[in-house]
Design a protein that fits this description.
alpha+beta, 3 strands
Length: 131
Amino acid sequence: MERAGKLISKLKLPAGSVCVEELACTGWPPAVGKSVAAHTRAIGLVASRLCVEVEDALWQRQLSILKGQILKRLEGILGQSVVKDIEFRVSPRRRMPQIASQPRGNRDEAEQIQDPVLRAIYKQQRGRRPA
């Protein structure tokens, strides 16, 4: 089975149609595997150095140790020595927008009381508060 980089080079596409940076970033997940790719993200290629965002300093330290192996895997996947070095940058994972579990608005706090008798007493007493 041929690697993606070798196949793309054989396609004889016009110059500039496949950006080397995009190719390097796309080759990152297969080079490191699903579990590591879930905690990292290749963000760009600058002067043959692949910049990769990692979740924390622990990931940064562990991946720095494995840098040589990852570079060999990237070269095998891309079919050429596009990436000469990897820079790991700590960047906390961004949280995606959350859907509200309960709609905001004017909700009566008495509705949170489960017992109907206690709820009625609470509503009566709330109306009698001195100003």
